[in-house]
Specification:
alpha/beta, EC 1.1.1.100
């Protein structure tokens, strides 16, 4: 079994928000980092610089999660540099807020393809190496809405519910190979995804949370890090929801 410092983590959607916090958490422990992004080149470079300042080896790479061709090229490019991730964090995703009656087929396809297809493709591409070495960690960043559902977020809730089911099923499939699969399903986290909410809506939402506040990206990153530890090998198939007591 590898020590954590001997491993490499690939974080999809790692340029900012929860993804960037995850990258920095691993960097602080000397893990090799691969930051995936689509278009946020400057944000990815800034996160990479912060990780390197913590002493980590870092590579940034761009690919569209909706494209199997681009993701295959991403894997091949990593392999050409001798990089084979031991830890995959499927964090990349998009949200959609609005009534289901107003959802077009294009919107449906975009949300499904980024949030679900992207997770499927990345997992399928990178799990063979984990199986071959009989060690690996796959961590899917889901949402509390995948557990409880949310009005006006039917698409997002659907993809996260699918992610949770994917996690449970794949965990059983990969457990004999020494690869764990878990999901982290945060409650409300103070990131750019909250940008569509006005101050009054945010205040009302905070009042519903027993902890009286939103979570931080760093708190979510700490849980992802814990699930990546070699000593977390008996935790698999779990959907863990840090949400301040909001949903239990």
């Amino acid at each position: 079994m590898k020590t954590l410092q001997e491993t490499t983590v690939l974080i999809t959607g790692g340029s900012r928000g929860i993804g960037a916090a995850i990258a920095k958490r691993f960097a602080a422990e000397g893990v090799n980092i691969v930051i995936h992004y689509l278009e946020s080149h400057e944000h990815a470079n800034e996160t990479a610089r912060m990780c390197m300042a913590l002493g980590a080896n870092v590579m940034t790479i761009s690919a569209d999660l909706r494209s199997s061709e681009q993701l295959t090229r991403m894997r091949d490019k990593l392999e050409s540099h001798g990089i084979r991730p031991d830890i995959l964090v499927n964090n990349g995703g998009i949200s959609h807020y609005g009534m289901l009656a107003d959802v077009t087929e294009q919107i449906w396809d975009d949300v499904m393809n980024v949030n679900l297809k992207g997770m499927f493709l990345c997992t399928q591409l990178f799990m063979p190496q984990m199986i071959a070495q009989r060690y690996g960690r796959i961590i899917n960043v889901s949402s509390v809405w995948g557990l409880s559902g949310a009005s006006c977020e039917v698409l997002y809730s659907t993809t996260k519910g699918g992610m949770n089911a994917f996690t449970k099923a794949l965990a059983k499939e990969l457990a004999p190979s020494g690869v764990t699969v878990n999901a982290v399903a945060p409650g409300v986290v103070d990131t750019l995804m909250m940008g569509s909410f006005n101050p009054e809506e945010k205040a009302a939402l905070q009042q519903e949370i027993p902890a009286g506040r939103f979570g931080s990206a760093e708190e979510i990153a700490s849980l992802v890090y814990f699930l990546s530890l070699p000593e977390s090998s008996y935790i698999t198939g779990q959907i863990i929801s840090p949400n301040g007591g909001w949903h239990t």
